[in-house]
Structure formats: C-alpha cells, structure tokens
Design a protein that fits this description.
The longest helix has 33 residues, at 435-467. The protein folds into 3 domains: 14-182, Jelly Rolls, CATH 2.60.120; 205-379 and 468-570, Glycosidases (TIM Barrel); 595-736, Rossmann fold (3-Layer(aba) Sandwich). It contains 21 helices and 34 strands.
Length: 796
C-alpha cells in the first residue's frame, strides 16, 4: 500500500495535517524508510499509527499541536502517545489524527490503549459520531492492561469538508499505543469484569441515565449503550440506570400492553448487576399513543396569555384519569413483583414528566413542536368549571364571593379563569382599600391553580402506592418556585411523606450557591415532613457540578442521587471528582440548622418579580449570598402553620413580606416565646397581612415578649449590606447553639461553604478555582484545593 505521508519542513497549519510528525521524530521520511513503513502494515490493515521512537505512521498521521499536545512516553516497556487530561472544566482532551485513505465500504477502527483510570472513549470520524451498535470496548475500567476498542466506521468514512478539523478525533484515552484501520472485522475482546470501587451504606441510591430509552424500532441502539457503558457505571458504584417508560411504547392499542421494549433493557441491565429506575411518562405530549391522541373529548392545556393549546393532557379535564390508573396497574403487575427496579419516579404532567404545568420543552406528539412557556395554563374548557367548583366549596354562596372580591356575579357559572395582574402590587408600601378585593381574587385563583397541580400529583402518587406498596417512590419536582410553574414543594413533600415516598429535585445547577437557592425550599420541606430526598441536575454539569451535588446530597441527608452520564464523562475531570468525593456520601446526615429564611408563598403568588426571573430574582440572589454566611433552611407559610418554627432560633426575611393573618399570628407567638426575626425595613419591610399590619406595628414598638424583631434601616442592595446586618443579629441571639455560633464566626473565604452534620461533623466545600486557606474554630489551618470537599470531626 502506498505511503500517505508527506515531507515538509514548513510550519504546521490546520490545513496541512499530514506534515505533522510525532514528538521526537524527524519531519522527513525518506526512501527505504517509507518502504519499511509500507511493508509494516499487517494483513487486512488499511492504515496504522503506532507509538515508538520514532512513532510509526502509514496511512494514519497523529497530529501534534496546541489542541492536542501529546507526547511519547514509555510505560512497562511499551511506548505510548500520552495526552494529559484537559484542565478546562467543560472540554475533553482529544487525540487528533488524519486518515489518509477513505473507503467506500465499512472499515474497522482499532484503538490500542493502556486501560488507566475510569472513563468513556468517544470517537468521531469525518466529523460524525458512531452508533453505539458499532462500538466495543470503549470504556476505561482501570485494569492496568492494554486493551482494544473496536469501532465500525461506515461510508463515507473519514470524508470531511475541506478545511475542517482532522478527520479522526479520539477523546477519553490518556495512553494510546496504536491506531489501526482494518478492512474486515477483528476479534472483539470481552470486557473484563471489574468489581465496583465504591460502596455505599444505608440504602443510598445512585442512578444514572445512559440514553437507553430510544424510540421503538431502535432497541438495538439502546441495548448497545448498556453493553458498552454498564461496566463503567457499575465500576463507579452506580446501582441503577434510569429510563423513560412511555405510554405510547407500551399500550399501542387500547388495553393491549406490550412490555418487550423495556424487558430488553431490564434483561441487559441484569447481565451487569444493575437495576432499572423508571420514570413513568403518561402525562406528556410525546408519550401519547396514537389511539388516545385521536380520541374525541381529550383536552390539552391552553394558556391564558395566547389562548393556544398543546397536546399535553389537561389536568382539569380528567379524561386521562382512567388510562393513567390502568397504565400504573399494568406496570405494577409486570414489574412490581420482581427485583428489576431499584425505585421509580412519577411523570404526572409537564413536558419532562415533572409535577408542573407546561413550562419548558417543546417536544410534542410524533416529534412536532408544541407551544410551551412559563405562564398560566388554565384556558381550556375544563379549567373554569374546576375553578368554579373550588370557589363554591370555599365560599358556599355567590354572595360571599362577591363580598370578598367586590364583584356582582349572579352564579358561580359566570366566573371564568383569568390572567392574574401580577406585579400590580409590587411597589406598594401600604395597600389602598380598593386593592384588597383584587388581591383576594388573585390569591384565590393562584391558590386554586397551584393546588390543582398538587392534587393531581398527589393522586398519581396514591394510585402508584396502592398498586406498588413497597417500591421506593419519588415525585419529580422541578422548577424554581414561580406560581405559574405550579410546583408547590411544601405540598408535594408533605403528600409524599404521607405515602412513605420522596421528592426528586430536577433543577440542580452547576453553581453551588444557585443550586442551594433553588432547591432549598424542597429539601427543607422534605426534611421537616419526613420525605425521602433525591437530586437531579437541570442540564449540563462539569466537574464543579459533580462536586457541588455530592456536597448538597451529603449535607441534606439525601437518599438518592441521579446524574446524566454526560455530567461525569463529557469532561475530563468529572469521573475523577466522582471517585474522590462520592465516598463522603457515606457520612451524609441531616444538617444542624438554627436559622431559616421566610419563603413568601403569598407574595410569590401576587408578584412575579419575587422568583420568576431566575437570574434576577431579589429573593434568590439574597439567598445565594446568605449561604456564604451560614447553612440555613427555608420556612414556607404552610410549614410555619404546621409547626416548623419550633426547629429554629432565627427567621430572616430576605424578600417578600405579605402573608396571611394565621401565619403572622404564629410568628408573633414564636417571637414572644423567644424567637428572633430579622427584616429589611426599606422599601417595604413590614411583615403584614393584606389589610392588616398591626402585628408588625406592635413589634416596632418593642412588643416582642422574650424574643426580638430587628428592622434593617439601610439599603438592602447589594445583598452584602443587609446580610452583614443579618449576621450581626444572628450572633446576638443567645439561644443559638454553640457549634452554630462558632461556625458562623469562622473567618473563611466567601466561596467556602459549611454545614454542621447531625453527630457533630463539619462539612466544608471550596467552590472556587483557587486554593482556600483558613482556620477552624479550634485554630487548625485548613488548606482546600479548588472545588473540593472536606469533612472533619475535630473542628471545635
């Protein structure tokens, strides 16, 4: 075979891939040496590159440059091309190569590599990915042996646009011995059996998505994913793989259930000692069977903003209720009696099976684009009658409604759902008498709207618990708190605790402080009511997110942790971070908390600005900033009514002061019994009911019994101004536990976060790109690497 190399002494450019030589090799390959390389091709080889001194190249040239700074190194008597992992949190280092000959028939790429560390090998040829069915041996399992990854490359093999990147990209290998391209299928080596390197105690669940839930007709691709990736995720301590279980994949004809699609997944997982963690998707548009989609009388959600419908079944119509119950019963019959499941979660609504209205995601029936947004989804024909029934149950008579709302209805049937005038009260320091009826009207609507979603999700959970009394069960609680989304974390935690289940937060961020701010309402409620806690990222996360999420679940006493495989394997540092810090999960415990922040349910229902804008929310921004001061909970209005204040010494108002009279009365009694409240006084910092601020006025006059209420007189923006004041008042609280006081007084960098675990240990997270050095209360100096976790028993 003719040699594909070129000879050049000119500087290397991207367009001149074939002029590049390996480290330590000459740039020229002359006469007899070219013949030697050509004759070195083995039988059936189209091209080959092999590490050596110099490296041998025939038909395949390994590129060396700024984007692929590999070097030659010898280990165990063998030569390897060595590529250091990328230090960029969001990228992967990759060997870049140019294959000089394209083929019109399938070819087999063989990568010989030292199996060092744990990770996923990813290859693209000609800028195109490779189906999982065409891959073998692409997971590194740290066996210390030289192994082979084999990939079938179909035509047009290695053809890429002129001027593009090199036509072969190999990520996930640190020690590369050889690349060969064959014209026939080689022998596939069996994947070595590797025992898990991480063990977890207390029934802690580790769940991962490895994209096994492909469409009908493409089962082979999903099973190939498991074949390739299961050895890796099992070695790293995961015990289950998550898959959507879609209604349309199973009940393709009314009443006829075919579970073969998921049976194949379960059977393949069993080969690797893994279980299934299903998400039942019955309430999303893309999961609708054709026969149901075409059924008369079905109703989808319709928004009040645009009066546009989508195919996500309306929770107000109740058309799908019997079908949901039947699906759950059949699922329980098929999978509820064996050991195929580690647990499961419910997908009652939304577009990702979450317990919410259609806020995000545009994938609809049969792949069509549907109308979704954060908004008010109560315009379908069934919504108003449901609202009317709720109002009649609350007020009994239409006259009572008219008196409360200052309206003139003659019957409940006249009342229609409406678009709430949110923000119309946001800048009021005091309310005019004319405001009160409109506020009551809006609160009635938002209370019904959010309560309807909570009731629907609770009913789903009851149906499932009845069918599967012993399964580990989680509700999918997404979003970050706006009323429009419909997720009431308190109600869902309370309902799932009553069923001995849990809630899984689907909204974790890559940023720890933001992650805390948007998940803390749910985790506080779950710990208070006794629901299990599970966590899921809302999207991509790099090594930083892997570490932050381990810290979050460890310091909340969580039971369940889910990752997308890309979170760990689509960057060069994720797997290493998981190995290093996941063992700390075995020290997880509930946190020792003395301080809570008031979660303003009523004001959120009245004013979008409180939390609707995730990245510009005054509440969430202050919550992020206060987390640097101390570990704390959120206390919702329902939690307060249910007695949660007894757990805390201090309650901080971050933003939002309007609440109900019963909540204010609970706050007043708690203060008079010794509690401390800290409020910002400007511009509108007096906690009050809609038409009554008498309790706060009494506090201003010092009528606080054994407790204290502090009002900050300065500008609360930026947050550090107010929070410095908050810290001072917290430390003045005599009832504060000594360990909490010592932790708050600790001088540490702003990006270091602490949590005291029940049992006395101190957990620390350095969430910055810099080393952190500081002293613990006992005087010991701590040095923490960037994005690292420490748990110490000896700190006071």
């Amino acid at each position: 075979m003719a040699d594909q190399s070129k000879v050049s002494n000119t500087p290397v450019t991207r367009r001149d891939f074939l002029t590049l030589a390996t480290a330590g090799a000459t740039l020229a390959v002359a006469g007899s040496e070219k013949q030697l390389l050509a004759s070195s091709l083995r039988h059936g080889e189209i091209g080959r590159w092999e590490a050596g001194r110099p490296a041998k190249s025939n038909g395949i040239t390994l590129i060396r440059g700024p984007e692929s700074p590999w070097r030659l190194e010898q280990r165990g008597g063998s030569d390897f091309g060595v590529l250091p992992p990328s230090r960029d949190y969001y990228t992967r280092a990759a060997f870049l190569a140019e294959v000089g000959k394209t083929t019109d028939s399938p070819a087999w790429l063989v990568l010989e590599y030292l199996d060092h560390g744990y990770g996923l090998i990813s290859v693209s040829a000609g800028g195109r990915g490779i189906p999982w069915t065409h891959q073998w041996g692409v997971t590194r399992l740290n066996t210390g042996r030289v192994r082979k990854a084999v990939l079938r490359i179909d035509p047009p093999a290695f053809k890429s646009p002129a001027g593009s990147e090199p036509n072969l990209r190999i990520a996930g290998i640190e020690y590369l011995r050889a690349i060969s391209l064959l014209d026939s299928e080689p022998k596939i080596e069996p994947v070595p059996h590797v025992e898990p390197i991480l063990q977890f105690n207390g029934g802690f669940q580790r769940d991962i998505n490895i994209t096994v839930d492909g469409p009908l007709g493409q089962e082979a691709e999903g099973l190939a994913v498991i074949r390739n990736m299961a050895p890796l995720v099992r070695a790293l301590g995961f015990d289950a793989v998550e898959s959507y279980v879609q209604w349309n994949y199973v009940e393709r004809q009314p009443g006829v259930f075919d579970w073969s699609h998921y049976d194949g997944i379960v059977n393949e997982l069993r080969k690797h000692d893994l279980k299934l963690f299903p998400l039942l998707i019955v309430g999303s548009a893309y999961a609708l069977p054709e026969w149901y989609y075409n059924e008369k009388g079905k109703a989808g959600f319709k928004c009040l903003e645009h009066h546009i419908s989508n195919a996500i079944p309306s929770i107000f119509a109740h058309v799908q209720d019997p079908y949901v119950q039947r699906f759950i019963r059949e699922f329980a019959k098929h999978y509820g009696t064996g050991n195929a499941l580690l647990g499961m979660r419910l997908g009652p609504s939304g577009n990702y099976g979450e317990a919410q209205y259609p806020a995000t995601g545009n994938l609809g029936y049969n792949g069509e684009h549907i109308h979704t947004h954060v908004g008010w989804w109560a315009a379908d024909s069934s919504a108003s009658p449901e609202f009317q029934k709720w109002l009649e149950a609350k007020y009994q008579t239409i006259d009572a409604v008219n008196q409360s709302w200052n309206e003139h209805y003659t019957s409940f049937s006249e009342i229609q759902t409406f678009l709430p005038p949110c923000n119309s009260f946001s800048d009021r320091v005091t309310f005019l008498p004319s405001d009160v009826p409109l506020i009551r009207k809006q609160l009635d609507f938002t209370t019904w709207y959010m309560g309807s979603m909570s009731d629907w999700c609770g009913q789903w959970a009851k149906w499932t618990r009845t069918a599967m009394p012993d399964v580990s069960l989680f509700m999918s609680s997404g979003g970050w708190g706006p009323t429009e989304i419909g997720t009431d974390y308190t109600a869902q935690a309370k309902a799932m605790a009553e069923l001995h289940g849990g809630i899984r937060l689907t909204n974790e961020s890559d940023n720890f402080a933001l992650n805390f701010a948007i998940t803390r309402m749910a985790s506080s409620a779950a710990r208070f009511y006794g629901a299990d806690l599970g966590y899921e990222p809302g999207g991509f996360s790099c090594m930083r997110g892997v570490v932050a999420r381990i810290f979050n679940v460890t310091t909340n006493g969580g039971k369940h942790l889910f990752y997308y495989y890309s979170n760990i394997f689509d960057n060069d540092q994720g797997a290493e971070a998981w190995q290093r810090y996941a063992p700390l999960i075995n020290q997880r415990a509930k946190p020792v908390i003395d301080v809570a922040a008031f979660w303003p349910d009523t004001e959120i229902a009245l004013n979008d600005e409180v939390v609707l804008n995730l990245y510009a929310s005054a509440y969430l921004n202050r919550a992020e900033a206060m987390r640097s001061l101390l570990d704390y909970d959120y206390a919702s209005e329902q939690m307060i009514l249910d007695g949660a204040l007894d757990r805390y010494k201090v309650l901080v108002f971050l933003w939002g002061y309007i609440t109900s009279r019963p909540v204010l009365e609970r706050l007043d009694a708690w203060v008079k019994d010794g509690g401390t409240i800290v409020c910002a006084d400007r511009p509108r910092g007096l906690p009050r009911a809609i038409d009554d601020d008498s309790i706060a006025q009494a506090w201003l006059k010092g009528k606080t019994g054994k407790g204290r209420v502090y009002f900050y007189k300065g500008d609360a923006e930026p947050p550090r101004y107010y929070l410095n004041y908050v810290r001072k008042q917290i430390l003045r609280t005599q009832s504060l536990r000594p360990e909490v006081r010592q932790a708050i007084e600790m001088q540490k960098p702003q990006d270091v976060y602490w949590s005291i675990l029940e049992g006395g240990k101190l957990a620390l997270l350095n969430f910055s790109s810099r080393e952190a050095r500081f002293r613990l209360p006992k005087g010991t100096t701590v040095s923490m690497q960037p994005y690292s976790i420490e748990i110490t028993e000896s700190w006071r």
